[in-house]
Amino acid sequence: AEGNPPGFVFAAGDDQTDESMFRELGKSDWSVLIGNRPSAAAWRLDSPSECRALLADLASSRLLPQGADN
């Protein structure tokens, strides 16, 4: 709804310049490094295609917050 903050932020990146973004995110946000190197990101995927697949899965799921009516 308009004016409500998002439940979480999904941030993915593959570059050293993304590290400041990863560090600024909150504990409930999802930080995802695309690649394999040391990072401030909480999660890692090997390739952009894996990130696209994850986003497609999230978009097609019926994920509801705890306590929400079906």
List the keywords.
70 residues; alpha/beta; 17% strand; globular
What's the layout of helices and strands?
Elements: E1 10-13, H1 19-24, E2 30-34, E3 43-45, H2 48-60
Parallel strand pairs: 1-2, 2-3
Count of individual helical segments:
2
The percent of residues in helical segments reads: 25-40%
Identify the strand order in the major beta sheet: 1-2-3
Q: Major β-sheet, in short? A: 3 strands, parallel
Give the N-to-C terminal Cα separation: 18 Å
Beta-strand content: 15-25%
- What is the H/E string? EHEEH
Residue-averaged pLDDT: 89
Question: Structural class of the secondary elements?
Answer: alpha/beta
Stretches where pLDDT is under 50 for at least 5 consecutive residues are none
Number of strands: 3
Radius of gyration: 14 Å
Shape: globular
What does this structure look like?
By secondary structure, the protein is α/β, with parallel strands linked by helices. Helix content is 27%, strand content 17%. It is built from 2 helices and 3 strands, in the order βαββα. The chain has helices at residues 19-24, 48-60, and strands at residues 10-13, 30-34, 43-45. A 3-stranded parallel β-sheet has the order 1-2-3. β1, α1 and β2 (30-34) form a beta-alpha-beta unit. The radius of gyration is 14 Å and the shape is globular. The mean pLDDT is 89.
